[in-house]
């Protein structure tokens, strides 16, 4: 009797194991395409989990969006140069971590980039380069040193009138991390939250293999040149090959150095591997600004963080501990 029961349990357990499948949903959140994949036994459960992730990401969007006039972020911006604004601990902490990344990257990453005047256009309409004066003035209100945090009162104050903050280079990564954490706490064994190339993964594929990420060269999009396993960690790819403008033979990309007002120039794509998508997201943007040499140097100093850079000539550069398998 006992033996039978034991056998049935094993049988049930193994059918459960083998019926695990990847369930996936694509939708638009935070103005971007999100692909949410979970490994689950049945469709009903999977869609319950996916909805939880969607709710979590929408909740974060309401907090950090600078387009939504009702967000706390908009409230901070409206009060720039006027008064500190009390915010949720979650937003306060995100801003605190953003400032820490600014320090880590010598200001290449800066959420106050958002007040930059839009003097560069990357839609083909720009015929002459802006003047040096215009470029300098465009970043007059940019500077993370003027974001004043008061931990005790949990307030944020933008010191200068007209200052703005924006989470365009960190928010999607943060949302991917939070959705992952939530689904793990709900017991989801494996999955991928992919926010337009900012992704965090956990667990393994139903066949027992690690998740794999394909790295493509933007100059030859149909051809992935590396397929890398990622295990319970994040990978973020940043870069838009189409958005750039050429002046005097130099290529200027849509990511602008917040310290100088000049667009980043020698990189077309960066992938960063890190334990968290938030940091990977912010670092990918920073590497664009820092350039290949300084970017690689900085990444090589950080533990558990790797990167692959593709420069504007198609050259591939990798940090010290990365191993590209040609496929
Ligand atoms: P994408 O999400 O388009 O792949 P990124 O993650 O690199 O690209 O983020 C680019 C966005 O980040 C820009 O659209 C802008 O909102 C914001 N941003 C641009 N430059 C900086 C910067 N130096 N520091 C912080 N945020 C930036
Ligand atoms: Mg980024």
Automatic annotation (TrEMBL):
Keyword Transferase part of the UniProt annotation: yes
Keyword presence, Metal-binding: yes
Catalyzed chemical reaction(s): L-threonyl-[protein] + FAD = FMN-L-threonyl-[protein] + AMP + H(+)
Cofactor: Mg(2+); Mn(2+)
Cofactor note as given: Magnesium. Can also use manganese.
Binding site for Mg(2+): 169, 281, 285
One Pfam family here: ApbE
EC number: 2.7.1.180
GO molecular function, one term: transferase activity
Source organism, top-level taxon: Bacteria
Keywords linked to the UniProt accession: FAD, Flavoprotein, Lipoprotein, Magnesium, Metal-binding, Transferase
Family membership noted in the UniProt record: Belongs to the ApbE family.
Protein name: FAD:protein FMN transferase
Biological source species: Lutibacter maritimus
Lineage, opening ranks: Bacteria, Pseudomonadati, Bacteroidota, Flavobacteriia, Flavobacteriales
